[in-house]
Amino acid sequence: MTERVVIVGASVGGVRTAAQLRAAGFAGEMVLVGPEAADPYDRPPLSKQVLRGSWTPERASLGDPAHQWGAKVHTASAVGLDPARRKVELDSGETLGYDRLVIATGAAARQLPGPPLAGVHVLRTMRDCLALRADLARGGPLVVIGGGFVGAEVASTARALGLRVTIVEGLPTPMARVLGEETGRMLTLLHTAHGVTVRCGVAVEGLGGTSRVEDVVLSDGRRLPADVVAVGIGVTPNTSWLDGSGLEIRDGVMVDQFLAANEDRSVYAVGDVARWYDARLRRHVRVEHWTNATEQARTVADNILRPEEPIAHTALPYFWSDQHGAKIQLVGHVDPALATTVIEGDPARGRRAVIYHADGAVHAGLTLNWPRALGAVRRSLDNGAEVGGVLADLDALTGR
Questions:
Q1: Do residues 285 and 360 both lie within one domain?
Q2: Are residues 46 and 93 located together in one domain of the fold?
Q3: Is the pLDDT of residue 289 over 90?
Q4: Percentage helix, strand, coil, to 5, in the chain?
């Protein structure tokens, strides 16, 4: 019988696991561990509403774990795990026993090498957000290093605040490694249309300045003036505390289709830190999306409460981003090597869809300001429809 569940990490995956357990009737002891466990918050607003100043930090709160879900809160970091003895060691010196453990420690933003300079920021935590927001108030210019979704959202927010913004991306287009170059070019046009300078195919050699950043030095010799730099070059799963635990770690915690990390299913992982076996793809994947973390939390809660009838996590990845007033949505598993077909919707409303496909099958779809098109793609993925069918559905939506 599961009497005590310990959740390490106050990420959205960890907090949602606690909420799902209580909603499903778990009456045992629940412990939430993490430096921010007493006041967990949602991360998507950090690059948008909170950074812009239209939301207070409190508005991004995920709730009060103690009062809402009856969780015992330890504002500490886990530093070790012994799955055989079912013990978690904390940096406070305490040791917590558990019947079931949920690892939800998320990921940490990668930093640029070299000594720290004032004005250089990553964006992963509320503290990061508020520090960057204070520096954006200086007026820029801002250089964003890395053209991924977080960097793109920071660039969008900074432009809305009136700053001069440049994105530097080493690939041929922003997000080429994830979405492919054609989609990357489409998103580049969105940025340039709103006054962002986008420099691609060039690396960052270093940063100029003594105590505070003054410019960004590029590999082609150019120097970009910068009063603020936002670094968005990816994340690293927070797994160092699991060294020596015996769990398999490979760019995240390796878990099976039920999100369990060990044979007796006493340890689970959710969210950015989990690399799970996707039965649809027949391989392990790690997805850094908010929706994925919340859906995995539901799966883990169900499997903890009904271990004799475990369910596999098979939800399709879904992601959204708001940039320059445009709603970008993506569903499915994207591979930049897949063939793409672009469907133009309503140009006046900026509607467009990119369908990723191979051998007649749809694998994913990205839409711009076109939620009905995204719904058509999702239905095709759920029903296994061929690419010709979804393209016909999208053509029908355009009225052509």
A1: no
A2: yes
A3: yes
A4: 30, 30, 40
